[in-house]
Specification:
The protein has 350 residues and is α+β, with helices and mostly antiparallel strands. It is 38% helix and 28% strand. The strands form 2 sheets. Strands 1, 2, 3, 4, 5, 6, 7 and 15 form an 8-stranded mixed beta sheet that branches. The protein has a 7-stranded mixed beta sheet with strand order 9-10-11-12-13-8-14. A hairpin with a 3-residue loop joins strand 3 and strand 4. The protein is globular and about 65 Å long. The model has no long low-confidence stretch (mean pLDDT 93).
């Protein structure tokens, strides 16, 4: 890659709070940046998972022209990679200056050589690097407009799912903004154990709330005073991203998930959001079907990989048949055991 640039371009690495503030001002204004590009993720990932991060940016004439958050994920089991970004739906370089983007790619490749990684992964929505390997058949994202009027949002939900939402409103459920990250984590942990997936440590949810403040919202759903469902959502510009959600087994018959996501949509519309981002799901899963039932059209995410040593594209996901037995065993673990072991495994999965 030819990355020679005029002297007005400089590649730097984020290192202090003043730089983080400049980074976030750029991200907030950059059309192709996302909440996952915010500088706070560097703190969250380093403190929650102890991964080394390299948040790279390019200056043009003293102003930021492009950013690239990179995290070094090194595991004996799952490999050695630079990922932008792990634990995230989106990533990759953000910017509109072609030279800045070329310089970010070149720096990522150079860093990957120094760290001797197996591959570099950009979690991009569109494939823009023809010489990288693209994986576009696994994850799909679900986004659609919302408005300030709750009744119009409800009317935009397909008839069958709208009836389910209306029924959930009659089941005595109560929604409230909650400051207790542990309460949301508890129901999320039970959900992912039941799916056979290792759970994050409670400290991860706490760090997200501490670092992102009001842009990280915790919503709990209660029945007779007991939390039966909950979701952690991010707010970015005019978008809401319900990111980590779950519930106890009782929640399903109560329609708590339908009630919960409807309440997120209602509150977000009133708050001024105009895009509801339902996150990513794998094709063929229950979450994928659930989101389609709400009237969201799946859009493929085109994750891109620069491979080294002739390796194959990594396939670390629950649909891989090699993990089938482990998933089945994990579902049977007592919840306290799963919650103890999960954080040690999931930190390497990303």
């Amino acid at each position: 890659m030819n990355a020679e640039a005029p002297s007005s371009y400089l590649v730097r690495e984020l290192s202090d709070a003043a730089g983080a503030a400049r980074w976030d001002r750029f991200v907030n204004a950059c059309p192709n940046a996302t909440f996952l590009h915010r500088a706070g993720w560097k703190t969250v990932i380093e403190e929650s998972f102890r991964h080394q991060s390299h948040y790279i940016y390019v200056e043009r004439g003293g102003e930021i022209a492009g950013v690239l958050p990179l995290v070094h994920m090194k595991s004996r089991i799952f490999g050695n990679a630079l990922v932008s970004i792990p634990f995230g739906v989106y990533g990759g370089p953000a910017g509109e200056d072609e030279m800045a983007l070329r310089l970010l790619d070149a720096h990522a490749i150079e860093l990957g050589e120094r760290l001797d990684v197996d591959h570099i992964e950009y979690r991009t929505a569109r494939a823009t690097r023809p010489d990288w390997v693209t994986k576009a058949d696994l994850y799909f994202t679900f986004r659609r407009p919302i408005v300030a009027d709750a009744e119009r949002n409800l009317a935009s939900i397909p008839r069958k799912q709208r009836a389910v939402v209306r029924q959930s409103l009659k089941n005595g459920l109560e929604a409230a903004i909650d400051d207790d990250a542990d309460a949301i984590h508890a129901v999320y942990a039970e959900s992912v154990r039941n799916l056979g997936t290792p759970v994050f440590a409670r400290s991860y949810f706490r760090n997200l709330k501490r670092v992102f403040g009001n842009d990280c919202e915790l919503l709990s759903i209660r029945k007779d005073g007991r939390v039966v469902s909950g979701v952690l959502s991010f707010y970015f510009r005019d978008e809401v991203l319900p990111y980590y959600g779950g519930g106890v087994p009782e929640a399903r018959k109560l329609g708590a998930a339908d009630f919960m996501y409807w309440d997120v949509m209602r509150r977000a519309g009133e708050r001024g959001c105009r895009i509801f981002d339902f996150g990513r799901s794998k094709q063929g899963t229950g979450a994928y079907s659930f989101k389609k039932n709400w009237g969201f059209a799946p859009e493929p995410l085109q994750y891109q990989f620069r491979l080294r040593r002739g390796q194959d594209v990594p396939d670390v996901n629950p649909l891989n048949p090699k993990y089938r037995l482990m998933i089945a065993m994990w579902k049977r673990l007592p919840l306290p055991v799963a919650n103890t072991l999960g954080p040690f495994i999931v930190r390497s999965l990303g």
